[in-house]
Specification:
By secondary structure, the chain is α/β, with parallel strands linked by helices. About 35% of the residues lie in helices and about 20% in strands. It contains 9 helices and 11 strands. The protein has helices at about 30-40, 50-55, 105-120, 150-155, 165-175, 200-215, 220-240, 240-260, 265-280, and strands at about 1-5, 15-20, 45, 60-65, 70-75, 80-85, 90-100, 120-130, 140-145, 155-160, 180-190. The N and C termini lie far apart (about 45 Å).
Length: about 325
């Protein structure tokens, strides 16, 4: 581990982590953490030693010039802290990096060491997987945990997944064994348009994170980027009759599956979020002031979608169920 600065004193900290690679379809998860870091001007205080965890033939370093001096940036995982102000402030520890190539247990132990030292109360790991979901509907977000009590208190699914996993699943289990409350939030990305970026999936993850930790997240340009992304994919799909027909099939399957739940808690949560944003408009000047709920709980051109085939393999730690919980600003034109 390489400490870049002194470890800060934090208030009610939550650790939010995402890793590029297998668990990051459309770069949705890593982009979400990058957004938090950018909007709240995160301060990097530590980085893991790249020599310990990365195969540089898989994740190569990059060379760049700084005032005429050549420098090298090594692939690694960095930790930064963002301070969310307001009447009841809460700090976030952001973990952003690349899925390690080796020594996963040591990697997780280092992160847990930081969590313990900083007094982290909850670890939230963001992930994204490829799924049979239409781009025209709200992005399915599922929240999972290995802790039955946590699942009950936070209205999450208790994970039952069995099979190959990535660093998201390994870190969640490491947290559980260490007695650190941990949750994974998964976004389902349409497999037929999986190329990054996917601002709609990123936005949906941030909306669900906002609900989970009771902190109002400044969204910046994400809602507009999300709408532009969907318009672009709509136009590209319309140019290929096979893709358009496939998307319609996915829409029908999705709508049929969710019809019984259309008036359930998902709508109540959506309305609550709308009220929160309406009441908070102008109150924090867009600087991300904490807002806690009373109850717990230019067009972007997208690549042309390939012909639909069987969905590619993806980590399914999130299970097959998905909570279609997304902000009214997630770019879904059907909700506007």
């Amino acid at each position: 581990m390489i400490e870049l600065e002194g470890v800060p004193e934090l208030i009610d900290p939550v650790m939010v982590a995402a890793f590029e690679g297998w668990n990051d379809a459309g770069d949705a998860a890593s982009t979400a953490v990058a957004h938090l870091d950018r909007e709240w001007k995160g301060e990097v205080f530590a980085a893991l030693d790249a020599e310990d965890y990365y195969d540089f033939q898989v994740n190569r370093p990059t060379v760049w010039m700084d005032a005429g001096v050549r420098k090298i940036t090594w692939p690694t995982t960095r930790l930064s802290v963002v301070r969310v102000g307001g009447e009841k402030p809460r700090d976030l520890v952001l973990v952003r990096g690349i899925e390690p190539s080796m020594r996963w247990r040591s990697f997780c132990n280092e992160l847990l060491g930081f969590a313990h030292e900083l007094g982290v109360e909850l670890v939230v790991i963001l992930g994204a997987l490829l799924g049979d979901t239409p781009h025209t509907r709200p992005v399915p977000i599922s929240g999972t945990t290995s802790d039955p009590d946590l699942a009950r208190r936070m209205d999450l699914e208790e994970t039952k997944y069995e099979g190959p996993t990535g660093i998201v699943g390994v870190l969640q289990e490491a947290c559980t064994h260490a007695g650190v409350p941990a949750v994974s939030l998964w976004a389902a990305v349409p497999h037929y348009v999986s190329q990054p970026p996917n601002p709609k999936a990123t936005l949906a993850l941030l909306n669900r994170l906002e609900d989970l930790i009771d902190v109002r997240i400044p969204l910046g340009e994400l809602p507009e980027d999300s709408r532009a992304w969907q318009v672009g994919v709509d136009q590209l799909a319309a140019e290929d009759s096979e893709v358009a027909e496939y998307v319609q099939t996915l829409e029908e399957a999705r709508d049929t599956a969710e019809l019984p739940e259309a008036s359930g808690e998902a709508i109540a949560r959506e309305f609550e979020r709308y009220l929160r944003r309406r009441d908070g408009a102008g109150a924090d000047g867009g600087d991300g002031t904490s807002y806690r709920r009373e109850r717990p709980g230019g067009r972007t051109k997208s690549p042309k979608p390939p012909k639909p085939e069987a969905g590619p393999d993806a980590d399914s730690d999130a299970g097959t169920n998905a909570d279609a919980d997304t902000d009214r600003d997630d770019g879904d034109s059907s909700e506007d």
